[in-house]
Amino acid sequence: QKERKNQLPVEEEIGKRRWKWIGHTLRKSPNCITRQALNFNPEGKQKRGRPKNTLRREIETDMKRMNSNWKELERKSQDRVGWRMLVRDICSSTTGNRRKLILK
Known about the structure:
This protein is mostly helical. It has one domain. The longest helix is centred in the first third of the chain and has 17 residues. The chain is globular and about 45 Å long. It is built from 5 helices and 2 strands. The relative contact order is 0.15. The termini are far apart. The chain has a two-stranded antiparallel sheet.
């Protein structure tokens, strides 16, 4: 896999954009449809097999690594500069491995 100069690896770019969108969404009012979509929990039986890897599951996996929860992320997202720093820390990689995520 070739990497061009001054470009982030694809996985890192996707993660960065995902977290920027999450911060944007968490700053919206609770009755906004995009905000409600983050909390959507479908009813009914699950299909057989491994569950699909949804955006919510990805976020919750990252939150477990950060020892964080939705309320703390919501609070952190209100500070745009702090959120940008958090996104940078989450998405920066060291020698190909993901850095241990820490919320300050």
